[in-house]
Amino acid sequence: MRQRPGTAKGVMFITIEDETGFANLILWKNRIEAQRAIVIAAGALVCHGILQREGEVTHIVVERLEDAGPLLRPELEEGEIQTTPLKPRVRNFQ
After folding, report:
1. pLDDT over 70 (residue 78)
2. Beta-strand pair 57-67/21-27
3. Angstrom distances, CA of residue 80 to CA of 5, 42, 48, 74, 76
4. DSSP state for residue 84 in the 8-state scheme
5. Contact present, 40 and 47 (Cβ < 8 Å)
6. Could you tell me which residues are beta bridge partners of residue 22?
7. Measured between alpha carbons, how far is 6 from 40 in angstroms, rounded to an integer?
8. What is the pLDDT of residues 18-76, one digit of tens each?
9. Those residues with Cβ within 8 angstroms of residue 17's Cβ, 6 or more apart along the chain or in another chain
10. Which single residue of 15, 37, 50, 77 could bond 61 by disulfide (Cβ 3.0 to 4.6 Å)?
């Protein structure tokens, strides 16, 4: 979830989740501008920054982001189209 409240003076907050729980990414205005394409379009992120914890709340002040989306997709040759259909798991509860 990305949030950019009008009262935050250009700061953006992104909530992320992994197997350990939730963390709040804090992106200052200069980071948003420098990595705008990744901030807006990435479906999966790798985050580098300063970890801050207060009780059970975790924040990461972002220094650099990477788009991890390509790691989740199979490699395709240039111009090749993905032709493998998705096979949803179906359960019939009767």
Report:
1. no
2. parallel
3. 41, 22, 32, 11, 6
4. P
5. no
6. 17
7. 17
8. 888 889 999 998 988 898 888 888 888 888 999 999 888 899 999 999 988 877 766 66
9. 23
10. 50
